[in-house]
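> @MW can you paste both from yesterday?
MW: sure, first one:
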Amino acid sequence: MDIVAVENSTGISLSETFQILRSPLDPTRVRIKASNGFFVQAKTADRVTADYKDVGEEDWGDENPSLFIMTNSVDLRGEFQITNGYGSLHAPKVMQEIRVEGYN
C-alpha cells in the first residue's frame, strides 16, 4: 500500500499538525500521532483514519495497524524545516537573518 500525504485545506491550524514518531531500532518504521492524541492507522488498502488508541506500549511490530514504513524521496534539510515551521511568508526573512548573523 502506498500512501501519500496531501494537504487539502486553505490555512494552517493546530488541528492539522501531527507528530512522526520513529522506532529507536529502525528509523524507517514510524507511527503518526494526530492532534487528537490518536494514531493514524490503516483501515483498508485505501483508507486511513486517526483513531488508533495507543495502549502505552512501544509496539513497532508488523501487526500494529498504526505502523508505517517511511521513505524520503529527498533529504529534508534545515531550510525545509524552517519553511515548514515558519511558513512560506516568514521563512525567507528568517533565512536572511540567519545568513547575516552567521557572517558577523
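MW: second:
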Amino acid sequence: LEVVELTSSLFFSPIVVPFTITTLCSSPITRLTLTNTSLTTVQWTTLLKHLSLQHLLSLAVDSSCPIQSLVGFLAHHNVKDLVFSRGQPTSTRSPRVCVCLPLPSLERLDGPPTCIQSLASLAKLPTTLESLTIRFHQSSLSDIPLLEDVLACAAHFPDLSELCIQIPSGTSRRLLEIPRESISSCPVRVLFLMCLDSARHDIIPYCAPWLRAFPQIN
C-alpha cells in the first residue's frame, strides 16, 4: 500500500484501531488521508505517537487534529504536502515554554486560515514554501475581512511562490472589502483566486482591489 485514504471513524474504533496502526506502519505509504475520524484530542495524540511512516510525503488530516501533536509527528517525517480538511483546529493548553520544531521538508500547505496560523505558531515553517492554499468555509467566516486573514497567513512565508485563495459562494461583499487599516503587501508572484460557485457568484469585481496587496504577481 502506497496511497491510503481512511475517511471513516470505523477504522479508529477501539477494536479496529490496533489493526489500523499495524497496517499503516507495515506499509510503504507515501500518501495518507485521515479524515472524518471522530477522534478526540487524546486519541489523535495517541494515534500519531504510534505511527512511524518513513516513506510518507503527503498527509491530509481533519482540522480537529491537535496541532501540537501533529507538529511532533511531522518533525520525525519528511512530509512535503500537508492538507487540513474543513473545520476549526482543536485548541489545547500549550506549555509555558513551547519549542517550535522545524519542518524543513514542507513545500505545500493547504487549509483554513485558523489551522495555518496555529501551525505557524507551533512550528518553524520554511520561508521558501512553494505553494500555500487558504480555504475559507462559510460556516467559519468571522467579521474580519478575508484579505486580512490571507495576508496574516502569507506573512509567515516571505519567499512564497504561489498563493491560492478559495472563497465560498455567497460570501458577504463586506468581507471582500479592503481592510480600513493600512494593509501590508505580499511578494507572491502567482495568485489564484477561486469561488466555489463562480457560475452564480462572480467575486472578481469585488476582489479586484485586492491586487494592490500583491504588487509582484505575473
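> thanks! The chain has two domains: 1-124, 127-218.
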